[in-house]
Amino acid sequence: MKVHAVFNRDGGTFRTMDMKVFAETAKQIFEQHGHTFESEIVAGKDIVKALKKVAAEAGEHVLMAGGGDGTISAAADVAWKTKVPLAVLPAGTMNLFARALKIPLELNAALESLAGGTVQAVDISTADEESFVHQFSIGFQPQMIKFRNTLEYRSRWGKRLASLRAFAKAVGNPPQFAVRMVIDGKTIERTVSAISIANNAYGQGMLPVPDVVDRGELGIYIAGRLTPAALMKLAFTVLTGSWRNNPDVDEITAKVVELHFPHLRRGAKATIDGELIPLPKDVKIVIHAGELQVLVPSDVQTK
């Protein structure tokens, strides 16, 4: 197997590492498993260009991406569109897609696991033309991330602290918005505080991560009109893993979701895999079952 890696030197763990030493370690591990390996170390601003260049190379190969969730989401988009298998190396804060793929979070363990891994087909979803491997969110999460982006942080723990500060600010004024949802052909009209649509339904753990990544169904999570107290309660149930018992949250699975926002505010935002994007008045979310090839540990069965 030929593996060509792109490492985001500005992403999470990599910021404080000697990347040349790490790249050499990765090369040694993959060569010990009988593979060929080469890598590029690039700045965050150049990551998409580097990913596209590697994916376009001739011959069969695996595109490895190392970085945070934003890097991995960008790499998944490139890999999906070019039909090149993707290897995910978790070097961010949450590493949500890596967790879903059961990839170890310690970097050397992840390298060993991937070097002995196999390629399997998993799902990827789109919101209009934007792909995602984790979730598309409207309402509270974009509001919190907008607040967090006004704060400075330089480390993984700094980002977590900034997120807590942003949550504390956002919880005092939960958003409320009208939406018409067409879910697998069934129309629902509601006023809500948050909608999250996941690339496969979340599992039973504390983190919003699916247990299965190739079921071929979106997980749709709708939080009704929330007061500050209700939002605090929801946050507590999320942290304790008991959110499915929260009466303010509805969970639905579907293959296609269409959203219409009749009173969309100017400058409204959504998040897609944690990154802020403009929110259109109409958006269609579709899951593309089995269309993304990924390298996973050999002991992982995606179904």
From TrEMBL:
Domain DAGKc: 44-131
Protein's GO biological process: methylglyoxal biosynthetic process
Alphabetical list of PROSITE patterns matching this protein: DAGK
Cellular component terms (Gene Ontology): cytosol
Gene Ontology terms for molecular function: kinase activity; methylglyoxal synthase activity
Keywords per UniProt: Kinase, Transferase
The keyword Transport is annotated on this UniProt entry: no
Name assigned to this protein: Diacylglycerol kinase
Species for this entry: Phyllobacterium zundukense
